[in-house]
Specification:
Elements: E1 6-11, H1 19-33, E2 37-40, H2 53-59, H3 63-74, E3 77-81, E4 84-85, E5 88-89, H4 91-100, E6 118-124, H5 132-144, E7 148-149, E8 154-156, H6 172-194
Helix pairs in contact: 1-6
C-alpha cells in the first residue's frame, strides 16, 4: 500500500448499549488488520437538530455537521453499522446524512464528502432478519449520493444473544465474516487509490 486507506467508522445509533456499536468494532479490527487507518466515532458526540431548511438558510450548517463533513472529506471510505427502525434506517443516521450532504458554501461541490467514497455496511438487530430491510434503504441512499457500496454485507439476527459481556460476537464464523467486511473495504480502497 502506497498510503494507508483512511476509513471513518460509526454506528447509526445513539443508544448507549447499541448492538451496532458493538458490531462496528469487529469490522474496525478487520480493516486495521488489512493496514487501514481507522477513525471510530460515536455519532452521539455530534448532536444535530432535525434537518430544517430554515435553519440552514438562516444560520448555515450546524457546527457538528461541519465537523462530520470534515471527517468525511479526510477519509477514503466509511464502515457503517446501521440499526433497523421500522424496516428502514434510524432517524439519527438519516439526519446525519441529510445535514452532511448540504453545501457549506456556494462553491462546494454538492455531495462532496460522499462522491467517490467507498462504504461497507452491516446491521445487528433483535429481530430474525438481522436488520436486512434497513440495509436495503441505506445502500440505496449511499449509492444515490455517489458512494460505492461493497456488495458484501452482514446482518446479525437475535442480537440480544449474539454478543458476550465484553461486546464481542460469540459466534466465531460471524465474527470472521464481519472482520472480513472491514478487510475487504480496506483492500478495495487501496486498489482504487492505486489505479
Amino acid at each position: 500500500m502506497n498510503r494507508k486507506p483512511k476509513i471513518l467508522a460509526f454506528a447509526g445509533s445513539i443508544r448507549e448499549g447499541s448492538y451496532n456499536k458493538k458490531l462496528i468494532q469487529a469490522a474496525v479490527n478487520g480493516a486495521k488488520k488489512a493496514g487501514a487507518e481507522v477513525t471510530l466515532i460515536d455519532i452521539k458526540d455530534y448532536p444535530l437538530p432535525v434537518y430544517d431548511g430554515d435553519i440552514e438558510e438562516q444560520q448555515g450548517l450546524p457546527e457538528n455537521a461541519m465537523k462530520l463533513k470534515k471527517l468525511m472529506w479526510e477519509h477514503d471510505g466509511f464502515l457503517i453499522a446501521s440499526p433497523e427502525y421500522n424496516s428502514s434506517i434510524s432517524g439519527a443516521l438519516k439526519n446525519l446524512i441529510d445535514w452532511t450532504t448540504r453545501q457549506a458554501t456556494k462553491d462546494e461541490v454538492y455531495l462532496s464528502c460522499y462522491i467517490d467514497k467507498v462504504a461497507a455496511i452491516m446491521s445487528a438487530s433483535p429481530g430474525g432478519l438481522g436488520g436486512i430491510r434497513g440495509l436495503v434503504h441505506l445502500r440505496s441512499i449511499l449509492e444515490n449520493i455517489y458512494t460505492l457500496v461493497l456488495p458484501t454485507q452482514k446482518t446479525i439476527s437475535n442480537a440480544q444473544e449474539a454478543f458476550d459481556s465484553e461486546g464481542n460476537l460469540k459466534n466465531e464464523t460471524h465474527a470472521k465474516e464481519v472482520e472480513n467486511i472491514g478487510n475487504k473495504l480496506a483492500i478495495m480502497i487501496d486498489k482504487l487509490k492505486s489505479s
